[in-house]
Description:
This protein is of the alpha+beta class and about 425 residues long.
Amino acid sequence: MLDIKFIRENPKLLQKACKDKNFLVDIDKLLELDAFITLKQRELESLQLERNQKSKQIPQVSPQEREVLKDEVTEIKKQMGDLEGPLREKKEEFDELMLYVPQPAREDVPVGKDDSHNVEIMTYGKIRDFDFEPKDHITLGKDLDIIDFERGAKLSGSRSYVLKKEGTLLEHAVLQFAMDMLEERGFTPMSVPILVNEDVMKGTGYFPLGREQAYCVEKDNMALIGTSEVPLCSYHSDEILDESVLPLRYMAKTACFRREAGTYGKDTKGLYRVHQFNKVEMVVIARHDKEESERLHEEILKNAEDLLKALELPYRKVYVCTGDLGQGQVRKHDLETWMPSRKAYSETHSCSTFYDYQSRRLKMRYKDKEDGKNKLTYTLNNTACATPRILIPLLENHQEKDGRVRIPECLRKYMGGRTHIG
RNA sequence: GGAGAGAUGGCUGAGUGGCCGAAAGCACCACCUUGCUAAGGUGGCGAGUGGGUAACUGCUCCGAGGGUUCGAAUCCCUCUCUCUCCGCCA
Length: 422
């Protein structure tokens, strides 16, 4: 959520942001509501003042005067009542609308319609030139008997899968490797709920706009998270933190759930786009400082890059354009890992800066030592490692002519010393 | 699932109708002290949002939402959450 003051002062900028990010919000309507509320609020407050003053006098005056004052207060209350109804209605409308306003992208973010306009920044690693016909991960999974799509579908329908044997071990290995690496780099490991309430989904910006993407447990008014960013960011909601604890670096490995509504027919095969997956996520909660936020963005981005390097996977880094940014995101870098079967770099990591967008919704603040004021924190997050998607490049890039798959050095200690699958 | 207790400022915790946005302690900040020294003293210090250059000041907020009352942290109703005991159980 944005500061209404900022919107008042920059209506044009907001309109442009809505257009660039492709979010339809009626900013004029919002400002109209705001003006109405501000005006009526003041009227109401002056009536409240009058009421309070008269009420305070009552115990001090004579019984006759008391009755007069009571009548006066009753009259004031009637006037207040006339104001309160419409004011509340407009406020509700305003609050709801505010939840849909996107945060403008940083100035250097390329303007573009969708991910096809993302800008490549760099590539790392050499794309392998196979001297045999490489298999895709689906075939590899079947041949090595480590992925079972048929029975996955039997249990849970489309976009489901079962990992088995070394498939499971590889998944655990790569996730554990990511956690170990992050712990070494100062991230606090957390185990958090994956079933959360509405406030938490709203606070992190996934509701109301992303409601269609979430599995909701309506009976209990809860939702399954699509990423552990949700509980990690919300961990300190409604709190005023001590500045000295910032920046907080958190990580969690959780199951994640996405309905993938609106992606019918897209990436339907294999492990690329699935309803349930596991992810190690990094979340940083920082001071209200854009420069520091930028440094932290680079830091968590580098963590993910180092992970891909350790996994010996070629990747590229793209600067995500406005049209591919989320509602609250100011800027985002995706890491796309080379996937031979797709003959393309495809997204495996997503590193985002939010400034105070989430914190304002979450009411997450800290006391600034300099001026003693309470300020909203800044939040950032990045994927450390998401399975099974990362298994695609791992299996496909590291396959060998004899049908086996080489396990990268860094994962071997997590797989009982195995050097190969198969 | 059954029975009971509770929810107050960064924390602990008083407060059962106006003198309460709220005692006290802790923490924190400023200054003073510097041989009771991981101390002592004085003062400041809840959140949000308006008005004012400022001094200052209005309004709202004591889990959430309703109600009673001229007036509610305090009384009534509903909900949520927490704790204790019993039951069930990974």
